[in-house]
Design brief:
This protein has three helices and 14 strands. Strands 1, 2, 3, 4, 5, 6, 7, 8, 9, 12, 13 and 14 form a twelve-stranded antiparallel sheet that branches. The chain has a two-stranded antiparallel sheet with strand order 10-11. The longest helix has 17 residues. The N terminus and C terminus are likely disordered.
Length: 292
């Protein structure tokens, strides 16, 4: 009997090593605390508005982010607003919905259109914003995590962590000219660019993301400057009351079902399933190299 038990144990361990079975959760300490806190927020009904900005780039644009969640339904709204010389705002919004077991993408070209997705997209359908939400849920995303002092953000008490993923500095050529109406792009920097980032992630006690800051490490990151590019997503308002109207699609659903294609890393994607111009919406990774 003892021999049979030993054999079974070896079989289970071998299967786990091959990836055939579940591996035990090894994240402990601050990394485990951060992961558990982020997972806790998945069950919280809430509506949160955020600002997203890239510094030290100076552009006449503002990126507005909204999350509405009433599990299992949810909305992710991203709006890049450009201000012209006259001060007039031009908005490029897109929405990602999960509602009644279906997935929808809405976007604006001339008018707002909504389509059904055959599969779910990532949090926003864009890598830079997705990272603030999804890296913490993936094993081995960070090589070190430490908890720092609490902060107050949008009227909420926040637990904050500094997390550093693996990476290293690599030489990058001078970037191409900035496109008119494009979101902030750190590839405008010249000199030594790094793929090594540090994240600050702050959560409410019930697990809602209140602030995410991605800082590019290494340098110099810009010719003649010691400034390091940072991307900041920070809550400006949070409520835990959500109505049915908050989760309404902005337009009727038209067209057939579309396959949701995840956004390419470092690219400025069109809304999933749309024919929108490739660089009309969504901010790109601070300090990353664009494939274009």
């Amino acid at each position: 009997m003892r021999r049979m038990t030993s054999v079974l144990l070896l079989v289970v361990l071998a299967a786990a090593c091959r990836g055939d079975g579940p591996l035990p959760e090894k994240r402990e300490g601050p990394a485990g605390e951060m992961s558990k806190l982020a997972a806790k927020g998945d069950a919280v009904t809430h509506k949160a508005s955020y600002r997203y900005e890239v510094a030290p780039l100076k552009v006449s644009q503002e990126t507005r982010v909204t999350i509405v969640s009433r599990p299992p339904d949810s909305l992710r709204h991203l709006d890049v607003v450009t201000r012209g010389r006259s001060g007039q705002e031009v908005s490029s919004p897109q929405w990602q919905f999960q509602k009644n077991g279906e997935f929808f993408t809405c976007f604006k070209i001339a008018t707002v259109q909504c389509r059904v997705n055959t599969s779910p997209v990532s949090t926003f359908g864009h890598t830079d914003l997705d990272d603030f939400y999804e890296l913490v849920r993936k094993r081995d995303s960070f090589e070190s995590v430490k908890e720092t002092e609490r902060a107050e953000i949008a009227g909420e008490s926040a637990r904050c962590f500094i997390a550093q993923p693996p990476g290293k500095a690599t030489p990058t050529p001078t970037a191409a000219p900035v496109e008119t109406g494009a979101p902030p792009r750190a590839t405008r920097f010249t000199g030594q660019i790094s793929d090594h980032f540090q994240f600050e992630l702050c959560y409410s006690d019930d697990g809602l993301l209140l602030r995410g800051v991605r800082t590019l490490l290494g340098g110099p990151v810009r010719t003649g400057s010691n400034e390091r590019p940072t991307a900041t997503l920070e809550a400006v308002s949070i409520t835990r009351t959500v109505t049915a109207k908050d989760l309404e699609l902005p337009a009727p659903v038209t067209g057939g079902a579309q396959s949701a294609t995840p956004a390419a890393k470092g690219a400025s994607p069109s809304p999933a399933g749309s024919a929108a111009p490739a660089r009309s919406v969504a901010p790109t990774r601070t300090g990353s190299r664009s494939p274009s």
